[in-house]
């Protein structure tokens, strides 16, 4: 059993007094409001909603059409008046009397458990512990979970969702496990309980060690999913990060299992581009694959296995179930083969290969993406379908040995690692915990430390020697960190200062493990028949079929073969493979890609970056270009880079030349007028050579927190060596060189990740085949895009919209588009747009192209691969010198965020005339970028903040608009409050949803947010670039025009504010979709309960009358709606 304990370094260890109060008022503070126009009501809350965040990170995808369903509905989230700062000092004491009244409300609401999560409670848990005491006094029976004990780590969203999950399961699972343990004990059984995937991995690790394979890739293929985990030295890899369904994060120590929707029941189909797609949806066991004859009609991976002879339909589950091979073949013929123009056998083989490619991608995530070479591991395969594909998966990854355990259903499940209370005395607490669960043997103590470079936001976990901590101990940890950082991310910097964030202790008690003995063979070991099989080389061979139960230790056979047993089927397709039965009766076989590569680049970048805009906001993009500079793949990060990245590389190739690129070169570039967007977006790219041939150019674009120069395409590394003069020049013109240089190193590391992967492809398939494959990827995307455009109605559609002002004058700025759909091509003509202006709102051609591609992808095919081929059917007309194609020296900073929003709006308005069911209502219409610089009064360093604000997205035919999301042009993520305050001299006073800001409709628009920040620096220089702002200030707040005398209320720079100034940023919601008087009254009532809509708005906008208890008054609602409809006529 493993028990994980965590010690987070608290301020008392650093010489700070926990519990000290801190003064946050300045001498001459002012209160400034930046507020787009809306009819919202303004509450005067002094604190955040600390029980659970109301603003969530954006889900993945170009545009996420759905966000995670909150674990706790808004009406069951309660505020507590309290505040602790980033060093654990009390800003506002906990109001225990108010909390007692809140607990009474909770009790009246009949909640079953309570989760408590306050900001920075991991630094000082005093308020959470006080809250637990208050709850216990008011309501002694209710289970309480506090985040400082469940997960004492930084990042409030993950900590809150984890403690909520703990509170959810505590009432149910506590009673369940207690009952289960009693029943097991009464039967004389002493064993732990573990989850299915983790239990399989732990059992696989034990069996691997007994079989002589301590390093394993463990795969489990069931009916709906494929799961893989890495085992190193007999120990399963572990993680502290995970997601439950719908993308809600949690952080607890657990066995690291990567799961994808690629099991035997995964459904196969032809995608819009004419290629086979498998999963992630599944037929499950009911109705299951077509061959089950239980009503299933959609072809699955199992149907493909049966069709090409990998599974014997007469021997499924040992012959207890007979499969209908004819029905499987017919389904594949009708739904795959005839649609794609191939034979049934080709279609079935294609289904298998596509599914196996997805499995390989998942295996790369737990191996190569994390710095492990799969060739150094054996593979162990279990689950019903695991052994069917295991040998081919191993061949693809270069794994030399495949182990198929005999005890597929009898592997003893061992204890699952659990999280326990944080203790200052980790060893003593670990031993006490083991004693409490009845473990008397001395446990194994394994210390690890979470370490990062000073300025980074994510840590690397490394071994920490036990015993007394000496200088030699620290030196060993430092050396381990540098080595691990180099292995994981391709770079390290030994002269950089390090931060020790957390010290962890795993307390491991050994449990009795089963001894595996080989079974006695039954029956003849001769082949019981032969079956036609597609070999790994693509040839048809007559493969012998054996019964596993008849094979004894020492049995061996070369070549392609099939081994059947009731639990599964082992398929060996390699004619040069060798298969044997080892001493324990195991079978031993000895022997998505480019987009996943780009995602791996992004993973490495985000984990090693210094600025939160990278590590938390994901304001970057990663792409791969071929040897001639055309984009072949791009990961789903920032949409505003979607179309501009190709032009940046095109300019680079034009100016530097492919012939002038050498191995080890790295090029940096941020010129907006050479394919860029604005100055802070830097693109870094590097040529990849294989055997002296240029085969690829990976590129990464990231939003740096500061910039000082226009950098044309220039080599910053030449043949592997940094060009010191150029680096010195760039960094000398940046106010925070340490942060920016750290982010540049992270970008460099992501390029090294791509280089390794591309060279691996070329070694495996050859550079010619790799080049042919990238060409076909582009051609496929072109076919798919043309097919989707052909389904749109032909015609010409026009729309125009305005920006509020130029930033230097109050003149509105027009953006106009004429959209023409003609067969399989699209033309977007922006000729009616205004000329470029003096203010900072001009957009470059790359920005305009990005919005065209992004919107077209969303209204046609959101899953469209982003590459050069997909762009071929699209023509963009943007007159040079216009606000949508500015020429140097135009100011373009705001064009990337504000004008791009308006370009998106007019494109959506055009498409709304053609395909209204595929277009959402108008979004909140601004990125509202709030930036500033100041000297941190305590960290003694200059800091720069960059905040883009969330707002509401428009409603759509399929549902309500998303609430509190970053503008669709960026699709970035918000920065955690705790990360932000730990780095910058600002204090959040409020961060919540802007009630009643969503536009009314049958499907309501999403809601905006309200944010209040207090400046803690002696003085701060602030900037704003926003739009849709036309309202004056209020008695409490003043607008920027009143505070600073600016021309524009939403666009200004370099304004100085004193310490204690409070800045409020408020955003609007999205537009509604459909008639609000048709919205079901029950949905409106729920909106009122959840605080999205006020009762007054429910009546005036939706015609819904609610009683005092919140229920719908149906008669009054009908009458009110009748009056509103008559009034509108």
Q: Main β-sheet: number of strands, strand sense, barrel status?
A: 9 strands, mixed
Helix-residue proportion: 25-40%
Secondary structure tally: strands? 51
- Give the C-alpha Rg: 31 Å
Count of DSSP-assigned helices:
25
Q: Strand share of the residues?
A: 15-25%
Mean pLDDT: 80
Unreliable runs, pLDDT <50, ≥5 residues? 1-29, 33-62, 189-196, 407-424
Shape: globular
| Assembly category | single chain
The class by helix and strand makeup works out as alpha+beta
The end-to-end distance, rounded to whole angstroms, is 72 Å
Family: Belongs to the oxoprolinase family.
Pfam family, one: Hydant_A_N
InterPro entries: ACX-like_C, DAP_DH_C, Hydant_A_N, Hydantoinase_A, Hydantoinase_B, Oxoprolinase-like
Domain 2,4-diaminopentanoate dehydrogenase C-terminal: 9-62
Structural features, described:
The protein is α+β, with helices and mostly antiparallel strands. Strands 7, 8, 9, 14, 17, 18, 25, 28 and 29 form a nine-stranded mixed β-sheet that branches. The radius of gyration is 31 Å and the shape is globular. Mean pLDDT is 80; it is low at 1-29, 33-62, 189-196 and 407-424. Residues 70-136 form the Hydantoinase/oxoprolinase N-terminal domain.
